[in-house]
Amino acid sequence: MGIESSCDETGVGIVRGTELLAHALSSSMEQHVRFGGVVPEVASRAHLEAMVPTLEQAYAESGVRVQDVDAIAVTSGPGLTGALLVGVAAAKALALAHDKPLYGVNHLAAHVAVDQLEHGRFEERAVALLVSGGHTEILLVDDIVTGITLLGQTIDDAAGEAFDKVARLLGLPYPGGPHIDRVARDGDPTTIAFPRALTGRDLDKHRYDFSFSGLKSAVARHVQHEDRMGRTFEVADIAASFQDSVCDVLTKKAIDACLDHDVKTLIIGGGVAANGRLRQFAEERAAKAGIQIRVPRMGLCTDNGAMVAALGAEVVRRGLPPSSLNLPADSSMPVTHVVAA
Ligand SMILES: Nc1ncnc2c1ncn2[C@@H]1O[C@H](COP(=O)(O)OP(=O)(O)OP(=O)(O)O)[C@@H](O)[C@H]1O
Ligand SMILES: [Mg+2]
Questions:
Q1: From the CB of 274, is ligand 1 less than 6 Å away?
Q2: CATH level 2 (architecture), domain 124-298
Q3: N vs C: which end of the chain shows fewer Cβ within 10 Å?
Q4: Are 117 and 107 spatial neighbours (Cβ–Cβ below 8 Å)?
């Protein structure tokens, strides 16, 4: 069983190996909309209220109760401390009451591991592109539990964060990613040539790194300029041009990482992996480069408990020792640290 509470979704998943048995989710998203972003205290309280009902829902869906599971995994980081604490406390209570081994696992590795529920076990070395609200990373994955190497990451905003901020500039609701995705379908991505940061030939040091804050500013400048000129700007065209800039850079660097490391599989995970244009770019470019691409279905891309259960099952399968009952909530747990002590 896996429990997730790092941000604004309370998730409980139950798996048997790579088979998904339950995927119960409760989101406090609507409570954050009017603030334009997640309010940590509000999220923590919502987790508290949702935890037991979400557990019950997972038991009902799967016909499996906590008494029947082999182990309990929980996101111990990274994420919002107060939010993480609710899941960690719940998992500790269940582990203690039912005498089950407890595993604190890494949320980011779980975003990658979840694809196993969809497409089966990772058989060989892979590159993972992790694109979420708080993270944008390229990982070399020799083993999802014991062999993750960080190749590159964003030096400022995360990809999802850029989607959310640009949506706000364009007057679209929070969270902005799905809205930009939808609106951009009616736009022309060639309208505005927005910057593609850190893609120059001379930037070997940042070959696998990203930067999206300049792009965000470029969109803001464009919108202001059109306003000043008294022109009504076409939201769809700006959204499409912005989205293409992000997805172009993400997929280019991910494919480069595969080619450089002679890797034939690219896994894409995290909320932004739900993006239609990103999937399209990735599929086209991967096919050209002879690389197989693995992206979980949309409902498993954003935060959920199934991903935590999926990673937990891999940890158990490798026979690693359980985490201690003193397991902390670690808000800045690095992606290379997959299981908490
Ligand atoms: N279709 C989409 N296109 C682009 N972005 C999207 C889409 N759907 C969701 N997102 C973005 O994904 C992000 C949420 O993803 P996720 O739930 O994985 O992030 P998080 O859990 O908040 O961050 P982290 O996992 O880094 O802690 C938001 O920024 C949202 O705008
Ligand atoms: Mg996440």
A1: yes
A2: 2-Layer Sandwich (3.30)
A3: C
A4: no
